[in-house]
Specification:
The chain is of the alpha+beta class. The protein is 29% helix and 41% strand. The longest helix is centred in the last third of the chain and has 14 residues, at 110-123. It starts with a strand and ends with a helix.
Length: 139
């Protein structure tokens, strides 16, 4: 299973980044792909949430891993016979944080999806990380 990711530095402390990233009620304000999240709440292990995107899609997502203050992973199946796992991490650095988002694609179609679209999905993380960085730095 290939992993496709993007990272960037942010001058905000990890606690501020985590506060925004782990609370889905904030996502529509800084994530250019998200129209809304239901329910809008803090992420918790095992919790299902529905992402409504600006292009009209709806994705059921489940939190499958959580390291409070550091990372979370959510799974969804946007394509039949596939499983996408999105992992979001924040790590302390001198003068701020490094924020990263990655996707791994599994299931029967995962390898094909990864080879044909994994880098394109990861490129979409750049404006998301930029929006999160701006929101964290402005607070």
């Amino acid at each position: 299973m290939s992993n496709h990711s993007r990272s960037r530095h942010v001058s905000a402390p990890p606690e501020r980044v985590w506060d925004l990233w782990s609370n889905t009620s904030t996502w529509a304000s800084w994530n250019p792909s998200v129209k809304s999240m239901e329910p809008g709440r803090r992420l918790e292990m095992g919790v299902d949430t529905t992402m409504h995107t600006n292009d009209g899609r709806h994705h059921l997502m489940k939190v499958v891993d959580m390291k409070p203050g550091r990372s979370f992973s959510m799974q969804t199946s946007p394509v039949p016979l596939s499983r996408f796992t999105f992992t979001c991490t924040v790590e302390p650095t001198e003068g701020g944080s490094t924020i990263s988002q990655s996707v791994s694609m599994g299931g029967l179609m995962g390898g094909v999806m990864s080879a044909t679209g994994g880098d394109r999905v990861a490129a979409g993380f750049e404006p998301i990380l930029e929006g999160l960085a701006r929101a964290a730095e402005s607070s």
